[in-house]
Amino acid sequence: MDQYFNQMEKIVKERKTSSRIRFMLQDIMDLRLHNWVSRRADQGPKTIEQIHKEAKIEEQEEQRKVQQQLLSKDSKRRQSRRQTNPTLLFLSSTVKPEPVVQNPERPPMSEEEAERKSKSIIDEFLHINDYKEAVQCVNELDLSSQLHIFVRVGVESTLERSQITRDHMGQLLFQLVQQGILPKPQFYKGITDTLEQADDMAIDIPHIWLYLAELLSPVLKEGGFSVRELFSELSKPLLPVGRAGILISEILHILCKQMSHRTVGSLWRESGLNWTDFLPEEEDVQFVVSDGSSSEAALSKRIWSPEELSQQLERLLLEDMASDEQIFDWVEATLDESQMSSSPFLRALMTAVCKAAVKDDNTNCRVDTAIIQRRLPVLLKYLNSDTERQLQALYALQALIVALDQPPNLLRMFFDCLYDEDVISEDAFYKWETSKDPAEQEGKGVALKSVTAFFTWLREAEEESEDN
């Protein structure tokens, strides 16, 4: 049994696993140490008042012990002098000694105690979200040169919790720095303690770089740190393992959602940083920011592959639920005019919009027309009433239906919606129907059969219009 617990203690001290696992192992070790009787059963989270009271009691107890030790030493010294000097022995019996007033310095707090008190403050803060009270508690804790422990515990405690929790923790760290309670060197040291283990922690926490970015982005959004300063410090422990570019791109991506691509592009340009400073030599730049204000902006716009376009647009539309303006900003910041009208971009855009509109009701698939209607400005802007562009969009829709194993009536529902909303013209529909392009024949026969009624109705409506 001892071997198992020795191994558990080794895992906790190495800090190569996630904080959640380390805390669970520490709890088991504490239980064994106290004969399997929990010290914290049914206590619940401590209030701020309890934390203050405990800290005051501990401080008073420490001062009392130090005073007792000093008084004891002084008493022994006087006793020794009385025994060797008869005069002093006589005086001591008649003169009452004055009390000795001591002002001992408080001994430095151990790392374990600093971690425990930091975690209590953080748990209470996340429970009530009172920034003012949390800042006061950290200030009263008087960690001085150990404040990096508070930062590390804060990061590790929220790393695997909700996005809102990580945002709150990032805001608290920013306020501590802004009010001069948390020096920047201590902030960076606490963050570095986690970053040095992040590559190993990624095994247990696959999205660790996104989670770290959510913790760090508030300090940039609020203007407490410069882009150059923060990114330079963050990259120091990550460059040797080739992960600096990943974390920085995640931070920039979050800022783009909260601000805009143009604003973030300006911040990046003002910092004077270069992607080659953060990426391994063989790795290509996957995140391009630009404010579009100079000829240099055009040089930063590289050619995106179809796969990259699909991944980025699906992330914007399906995961981030970006607004139309954010999509416009991204397209203008990253693509030139020729790419905006290219088949890969048009197909990737149509696929992302239609994929977002597909709803699976267990038994069958249907089209959420409200999503198509919400994305009309995006579709209409880039299809631009151009028959050839609309044809590429229909090819993309055909490929999506094939990828979904051609659910019954799904293509017909898309055709009805796209026609009713004037996204696709009659000419484009007819051109798709008669197309013999060898590259677009996969699933074409089944697709045509599923929309036979649509084209029958389209021709009948056209004939009635001509007769009228």
From TrEMBL:
Keyword set, alphabetical order: Translation regulation
Residue ranges annotated for the MI domain, each copy included: 113-235
CDD domains named in the record: W2_eIF4G1_like (cd11559)
MF terms in GO: mRNA binding; translation initiation factor activity
A Pfam family the protein falls into: W2
Compositionally biased intervals (Polar residues): 84-95
SUPFAM superfamilies: ARM repeat
Database matches in InterPro entries: ARM-type_fold, Initiation_fac_eIF4g_MI, W2_domain
Sequence segments annotated as region (Disordered): 66-116
GO CC term (a single one): eukaryotic translation initiation factor 4F complex
W2 domain location: 299-468
GO process annotations (BP): regulation of translation
Protein name: Eukaryotic translation initiation factor 4 gamma 3
Species per Swiss-Prot/TrEMBL record: Cyclopterus lumpus
